[in-house]
Amino acid sequence: MRATLDSRLRLVFDYLHDLCTQLNYLKPQVNRAYFFLDSDDAFRELTWFEGFTDLRTLPQQEGGGIERVTFSYTLKGPGERTLERAGPGVERLRHILFDLGLRFECRELRNRQRELEQAWFTVADEINVQMVWRADLDTGRVVVESRNLERLGHAVVSLLPESVGEAMLDEFGRLVLGRENSFRSYIVR
Q1: Which residues make Cβ contacts (< 8 Å) with residue 116, sequence separation at least 6?
Q2: How far apart (Å, rounded) are the C-alpha atoms in residues 127 and 179?
Q3: What is the pTM of this model?
Q4: Residues 1-26 pLDDT 10s
Q5: How far apart are CA 75 and CA 59, in angstroms?
Q6: 38 vs 42, 68, 125, CA distance in Å?
Q7: How far, in Å, CA of 88 to CA of 73, rounded?
Q8: 13 vs 18: CA distance, rounded Å
Q9: Are 98 and 65 in contact, with CB atoms under 8 Å apart?
């Protein structure tokens, strides 16, 4: 099982490394809208800015092999947006922005007692996408943990090792670029 997962994660790393190298050069537009909270004001017109891939292996005394593949990239848009919150909503929004990995600046208004009354958050049109593909030896599957891949937020999916191949990775590449794809058909339900 370990050898099978290692070979599949090696394939994932090689594919994502090549994809990332090409996209870092081409810097294409990514056809996806990221909606923030319950707003209709989505992050749009995003362009690939920069990405990288990395892998982590197990120590030799634990059998070696690839433990995880990391794939991260940044999408940038043309502007920024300002969000206004009052009272207790300020810390909640600050936590959400931080958790989603969004770059922001905050200007606060405090009263004479130094209590926070209101804040304005300026959020850059910049989405940081992070994924970890890892071997799950307990289930014998490849687990993909993502942040901000298809939408703002976190997601975890599992793949059967035998489904991880060129066809599945091509569909994943289409997903990354916001194009029509069938990547979801490979996910174990």
Answers
A1: 87, 90, 91, 108, 109, 110
A2: 17
A3: 0.91
A4: 889 999 999 999 999 999 999 999 99
A5: 34
A6: 10, 34, 17
A7: 32
A8: 8
A9: no
